[in-house]
Write a structure and sequence with these properties.
Layout: H1 8-30, H2 48-54, H3 56-66, E1 71-76, E2 79-84, H4 86-95, E3 101-103, H5 107-113, H6 127-135, H7 139-142, H8 146-161, E4 166-168, H9 169-186, H10 195-206, H11 219-243, H12 251-257, H13 268-299, H14 301-316, H15 326-330, H16 333-345, E5 352-356, E6 360-362, E7 365-367, E8 372-375, H17 378-381, H18 421-438, E9 439-443, E10 450-452, E11 456-458, E12 463-468
Parallel strand pairs: 2-8
Antiparallel strand pairs: 1-2, 3-5, 4-12, 5-8, 6-7, 9-12, 10-11
The structure holds protoporphyrin IX containing FE.
Protoporphyrin IX containing FE binds next to helix 13 and helix 18.
C-alpha cells in the first residue's frame, strides 16, 4: 500500500489539536460582526470531506438552500472562506478584484508548485510579464495553430481510437490535450511520452485541492514530490532553450529572450511557474471539458446528430487532406453552443479564490480582512431565473443575445478571467469535428457516475464503443 487515506493523518492528530483549535476559533469568532451563515465543519478538516463526498456542485447547492442564496461561509483547504453566490456575487467579485481582493494561491498548490515562495499570496509571475505570456493565447496569435491542432487530432484518433473495440475517453483526451500544449507552447511534443513526467504532473495536480498537511503519505506530500520532478524537467528544458543559438517561434523561445520595461529578463523559475500553470489548465480542465462533451454526445443522439450535420457540411467544403482553418471554426456555431451548454451543466473549474485585503460588507454580511473569498459557476449556472429548466440540456439557450451578464461564468470574469479561453474554444471544436466525422459513440457504462477531483469527470474514465461511419 503506497498511499494512505488522505484524512488518516489529520484524524490521528485530531484529539491533540481539537482543544487548541476550538479555543482559538472561539476567540476569533467572538470578534466577527455579522458573518455569512454556514458551517466551518470539523476542526482543521473543515468541510473538505463534504467536498469530496458531494462534489462542488452539490455542496454549493445544498449550502445555498440551507443558509442563504446570497452568501455562505465554509472552511476548505484549511482556510476560512466566504462564498459569494449568484450573478450578483460573481459581479461583486469580478468588479472589485483589484481593489478588495488580492491574488491568492491555495496553500497546497503554492507548496507543490512554488516551493520558493514564502507566502501564499501569489506574487509570481510578475505582473509586468502578464501581458506577454497571455499574448500567445489571443485569437490572432492562435490562428496559425488551428492546422496543428487538426493534424494532431487526426493522428490521435486514427492511432488511438480506430480499430479499438473500447476506448477510455478521459485518459485519451488528457494525452491529446497535453501533447498539444507541449507542442504549441514549447515545441516539445515528445514530453508527454515520458511516463515519469506525466505521473509526476498527475500527482502534482491531485494535490491542488488537498488539505495543507505535508507529512509522508498525504496527498500533498505526493504532490510536492511530483512538483519537484516536473519543475526539474521543465527547468532543464528552459536552460537548454536559453543555451540554443536559434530563435524559435513557440512561447518558450519568446519567453527566454523577453524583457520587461526595465530591461530585465524573466527568471528561469518564473518561466517554469508559467508553464506549470499552462500544463495544468491544458491537461485537467481542458481534458475534463472534452470528455464531458463526448459524454453528452454519446448520451444524447439528437444532439450528436445536429453536431454531425454541421461538421459534415464543413468537412465537405474541404479538400481530402486539407486541414481546418480559423474560418471553418467560425462556422461551428451549433457545436460551440453544445460545448457551452456542457460547461454550464458541468463547469470544468470550481471557480476562483482570492484573499480579502480589507473587511467588506456584502448582502448585509460582514467578511473580515484575511478571509478567502470564492466565486463559483455552480451558484448561477443552475438557477432557473437565469436558465429556465436548468437540468435540461439545451444548446439553443445560447442563441441570440445569450445569457444575462454574470450568470454564465465558466471562465470567470473581470481582470482574472481565464486567459486560456480562446485556446480552449479552438481545441475543443477541432477535436469534436474530427471525432464526429469518424465515429458514432456508444457508452459502455450507461449511467456512469461523475466524480469530482480537480475537475469533474466520469468515474470510470468514460469507456466507449466507437463505431466508424
Ligand atoms: C475548459 C478549460 C478551462 C476552464 C473552464 C478554465 C477556467 C478558469 C478559471 C475559472 C480561472 C480562474 C479565474 C479567477 O481566478 O477568477 C482560470 C484561470 C487561469 N487559466 Fe483557465 N480554464 C481552462 C483552461 C485553461 C487553459 C487550457 C489554459 C492555458 C492554456 C488556462 C490558463 C489559465 C491561467 C494562466 C489562469 C490564471 C489567470 C490569472 O490568475 O490571471 N486555462 N481558468
Amino acid at each position: 500500500m503506497d498511499t494512505l487515506n488522505p484524512y488518516l493523518l489529520p484524524l490521528l492528530l485530531l484529539p491533540l489539536s481539537i482543544y487548541l483549535i476550538f479555543s482559538i476559533r472561539k476567540r476569533a469568532s467572538g470578534n466577527l460582526k455579522n458573518p455569512p451563515p454556514g458551517s466551518m465543519g470539523w476542526p482543521f478538516l473543515g468541510e473538505n470531506m463534504e467536498l469530496d463526498r458531494l462534489g462542488s456542485e452539490k455542496l454549493v447547492k445544498e449550502r445555498m438552500q440551507k443558509y442563504s442564496r446570497d452568501a455562505f461561509k465554509t472552511s476548505l483547504f484549511g482556510e476560512k472562506i466566504a462564498v459569494l453566490c449568484g450573478a450578483q456575487g460573481n459581479k461583486f467579485i469580478f468588479k472589485n478584484q483589484n481593489e478588495l481582493f488580492a491574488r491568492w494561491s491555495l496553500p497546497s498548490l503554492a507548496k507543490a508548485i512554488y516551493p520558493d515562495l514564502e507566502r501564499t499570496r501569489c506574487q509570481e509571475p510578475k505582473a509586468s510579464f502578464d501581458n506577454f505570456q497571455y499574448d500567445i493565447l489571443k485569437p490572432d496569435a492562435l490562428k496559425k495553430y488551428v492546422p496543428v491542432m487538426d493534424s494532431l487530432a487526426r493522428e490521435h484518433l486514427e492511432t488511438e481510437w480506430r480499430g479499438s473495440s473500447v476506448v477510455e475517453a478521459l485518459p485519451s483526451t488528457k494525452k491529446y490535450a497535453l501533447s498539444l500544449a507541449c507542442m504549441i507552447f514549447m515545441n516539445r511534443g515528445d514530453l508527454d511520452h515520458s511516463g515519469d513526467f506525466l505521473k509526476s504532473l498527475s500527482l502534482l495536480t491531485k494535490g491542488i485541492l488537498s488539505l495543507p498537511v505535508n507529512l509522508p503519505g498525504t496527498t500533498l506530500n505526493r504532490a510536492v514530490g511530483g512538483g519537484r520532478v516536473v519543475r526539474r524537467e521543465l527547468l532543464r528544458i528552459v536552460q537548454e532553450r536559453r543555451a540554443a543559438e536559434s530563435e524559435g517561434e513557440d512561447l518558450l523561445s519568446k519567453m527566454v529572450v523577453a524583457t520587461n520595461q526595465d530591461g530585465e529578463y524573466m527568471s528561469d523559475s518564473t518561466i517554469v511557474n508559467v508553464f506549470i500553470g499552462l500544463l495544468i489548465g491544458a491537461e485537467y480542465e481542458l481534458s475534463s471539458l472534452i470528455t464531458n462533451v463526448i459524454y453528452y454526445l454519446a448520451e444524447l443522439p439528437h444532439i450528436y446528430h445536429q453536431v454531425f450535420e454541421e461538421q459534415m457540411e464543413i468537412a465537405k467544403s474541404k479538400g481530402p487532406n486539407e486541414l481546418l482553418a480559423m474560418e471553418d471554426l467560425e462556422k461551428m456555431k451549433y457545436t460551440w453552443n453544445v460545448v457551452r451548454e456542457c460547461m454550464r451543466l458541468t463547469p470544468p473549474s470550481i471557480g476562483g479564490i482570492s484573499e480579502s485585503i480589507a473587511e467588506f460588507t456584502y448582502a448585509g454580511f460582514t467578511i473580515p480582512k484575511g478571509w478567502k473569498v470564492l466565486w463559483t459557476p455552480h451558484s448561477s449556472h443552475m438557477n432557473s431565473n437565469y436558465f429556465p429548466e436548468p437540468e435540461k440540456f439545451d444548446p439553443l439557450r445560447f442563441e441570440g443575445s445569450g445569457p444575462e451578464p454574470y450568470t454564465y461564468v465558466p471562465f470567470g470574469g473581470g481582470p482574472r478571467m481565464c486567459p486560456g479561453r480562446n485556446y480552449v474554444r479552438l481545441v475543443v471544436l477541432v477535436f469534436t469535428h474530427n471525432l464526429v466525422k469518424r465515429f458514432r459513440l456508444e457508452k459502455v457504462i450507461p449511467n456512469e457516475k461523475m466524480v469530482f477531483s480537480v475537475s469533474p469527470a466520469p468515474a470510470s474514465g468514460l469507456p466507449l464503443r466507437v463505431h466508424p461511419h
